[in-house]
Automatic annotation (TrEMBL):
Matching SUPFAM superfamilies: alpha/beta-Hydrolases
Record domain Dienelactone hydrolase: where: 21-237
Keyword match Cell membrane: no
Hydrolase listed as a keyword: yes
Protein name per the record: Dienelactone hydrolase family protein
Molecular function in Gene Ontology: hydrolase activity
Alphabetical keyword list: Hydrolase
Signal sequence region: none
């Protein structure tokens, strides 16, 4: 058993290999599960810190390394790292990543340490991927029990999948997002709430994209704190420990 601050390797088998994944367990050793999806920068210290935060709350957390087919690179979250991060995202096979995400969800649902429901949480690229995974797994009857998406960057192109996402969901968006304009945020809100009565959609005035990331390039302290408090309370309701 790990402590909330440690993790162990827990690769996930897929048809063409194994997805590297990090497993974080709460001090109790068991609890509800959360699959945590990375940003475009890879499985960074920030993503690991959020995994630890969730484990400290009592969740069993599995973090897949979604760049494994293209080198599993971790990129600086400073301005000079953005071009490389965008290059990696351009090389990513989206459908393969969705399949990897679905396999990771299935692996966590079957894990012996998981006692209770299993949700997904994703940031930026991972927020959109989590939404896509929720749609395809939900349509197959094996979807997550809850979905949290932070400023899902792919969501504007995934709205046709919204009717397939039946899980309760929580969405966070900044209204000063340079990548997802406020009018697009409202289009996303309309789409994800049209067929699902259990959607919480929260926006943050003055917050830009990736506002939860502690890098000075992105961080908005007020929005980050408010959104994390909302997330933990919401998870406590949907995935009670």
């Amino acid at each position: 058993m790990t402590t909330a601050s440690d993790h162990t390797s827990h690769p996930v088998s897929v048809l063409d290999g194994e997805v590297p994944a990090d497993l974080y367990q709460p001090e109790s050793g068991s609890g509800p599960g959360v699959v945590l999806f990375q940003e475009i920068f890879g499985v960074t210290d920030y993503i690991r810190s959020r995994a630890s935060d969730l484990a400290e709350l009592g969740y069993v957390v599995l973090v897949p390394h979604l760049y494994w087919r293209i080198g599993d690179e971790v990129v600086s979250e400073a301005a000079d790292g953005l071009p490389r991060a965008m290059e990696l995202l351009g090389k990513l096979d989206w459908e393969a990543a969705v399949s990897d995400g679905a396999a990771t969800l299935d692996a966590l649902q079957d894990h012996a340490a998981v006692d209770g429901p299993v949700g997904m949480l994703g940031f930026c690229f991972g927020g959109g991927l989590a939404f896509n995974v929720a749609a395809v797994t939900g349509a197959a009857g094996a979807g997550p029990d809850a979905l949290v998406s932070y400023y899902g960057s792919a969501l504007p192109n995934l709205l046709a999948l919204a009717p397939q996402v039946s899980a309760p969901s929580l969405h966070h968006f900044g209204l000063s997002d340079d990548y997802i304009p406020a009018d697009t945020v409202r289009e996303i809100e309309a789409a994800v709430t049209a067929d699902n009565d259990d959607v919480t959609f929260v926006t943050y005035a003055g917050a830009g994209h990736a506002f939860d990331n502690p890098s000075p390039l992105f961080h908005h302290q007020g929005a980050s704190q408010e959104a994390w408090a909302t997330t933990t309370a919401w998870l406590g309701e949907k995935l009670p420990v």
